[in-house]
Amino acid sequence: MHYHKEPGPGTGRWDQSLLGLVFNQEPVTHRVRYDALGNTGFEIPPGVTSWRVGSSKTYLEDTTLLALWPHAHLRAVRARYEAFYPDGTTELLLHVPEYDQSWQTTYLYLEPKQIPAGTRVEATIWFSNTAELGEEKGFDSKRAIRFGGKTTDEMMLGFLNYTHTVAKDFEAHPELIATAASNKAPSIAEEIPSH
Q1: What is residue 28's predicted lDDT score, i.e. its pLDDT?
Q2: Structure pTM?
Q3: Which of the residues 50, 103, 117, 163 has the least number of beta carbons within 10 Å of its own beta carbon?
Q4: Four-way CATH pick for 33-164: 3.30.70.2330, 2.60.120.230, 1.10.3660.10, 2.60.40.420
Q5: So what's the pLDDT on residue 4?
């Protein structure tokens, strides 16, 4: 969650956010990781109807995808995630044909998605900087737009939740979780036995 207050009187807002935590009664077997396939170096010209911005990452280990969450602001109009497999095939992982910043959601896999080592995942978001969309959404379509924290700026972030298919680090050594929790964490190199 992030906020960016616009300057001036009457622009403040109240929020009553809630956070729920669920504590697992069983030992953790795989650490869930969080990645952002992001691009912060783009510029969307004034007046364009479909400006493509993307980012990708190659996963070097067998990986289990748990969730995908495209994140952008007012000019985003569609989003897509694709997997490019080491054998040369591709697969559409997620397509959001009518992206709306007001209705962002995290897309959870009903069954975790396995991808093999060497798979490149690409996240792409298309933007419209037209006068019509600017009037509808309340932004200035006459200016070029870059990455930024304000809602009237843009972001291109393709978030992923995943885990390594084969457990490692803390995942393979639950005794390190207890040690880390007691704030006496030794260096990993000292604790993980060599194989």
Answers
A1: 78
A2: 0.77
A3: 103
A4: 2.60.120.230
A5: 66
